[in-house]
Amino acid sequence: MLARWAAEDGWEVLVIGDEADRTLAEEVVRGALDDGLAEAARAGRREPAAAWGPDEGRRLDRVDPVSAAPGTVRSVAGQLSVRGLVGLLAGCDAMVGNDSGPRHLAQAVGTPTVGIFWIGNTVMAAPLGRAEHRIHSGWTTHCPVCGTDLTQLGWTATDCGHVVGLNDAVRPQDVYADVLDLLEARVSEGPARG
């Protein structure tokens, strides 16, 4: 997630979301978010960073040294309860995440989102409106290793066992452009909620 922290100190914050259960698409989402985080950090914008989930602290450790002000990255990885996550999301101007509980929760509390969905989930779970909720979809429908029809898993196809990125075609720069667009819209509307 890229967001403004609506805390007393008014820090600008990059927030990276994670969910305990991993999906095949998640690794691609991680790459897109890492690219955007590193780019923004190098430019000195939207620091420090916060994250939740057990693996996120290690990722932030890799980004902090390339930031404009090393040592300013703040992580809340593994420290937030669901209630804390609600508070974090409610104070954000925008959230970037894969098709996960935190992205849906951000939408529920009124935070604009940029969601990264596999096409099968886009049809069933993506937000309907695009003014405050942008989507990017991965269109991989067959395993690139063996050709298994991934749209039929659990129906007429069995899991082939290959770990492939279903959202590999989602371009980080497109995701980041939508985030900046949502943030710009928030700024023109007035101060952040909180």
TrEMBL record:
Keyword Glycosyltransferase: yes
Highest taxon, organism lineage: Bacteria
Keywords for the protein's UniProt record, in alphabetical order: Glycosyltransferase, Transferase
GO MF entry, a single one: ADP-heptose-lipopolysaccharide heptosyltransferase activity
GO biological process: lipopolysaccharide core region biosynthetic process
Coiled coil segments of this chain: none
GO-annotated cellular components: cytosol
Gene3D superfamilies membership: Glycogen Phosphorylase B
Annotated segments matching region Disordered: 43-63
Keyword field contains Glycosyltransferase: yes
Stated name of the protein: Glycosyltransferase family 9 (Heptosyltransferase)
Protein species of origin: Raineyella fluvialis
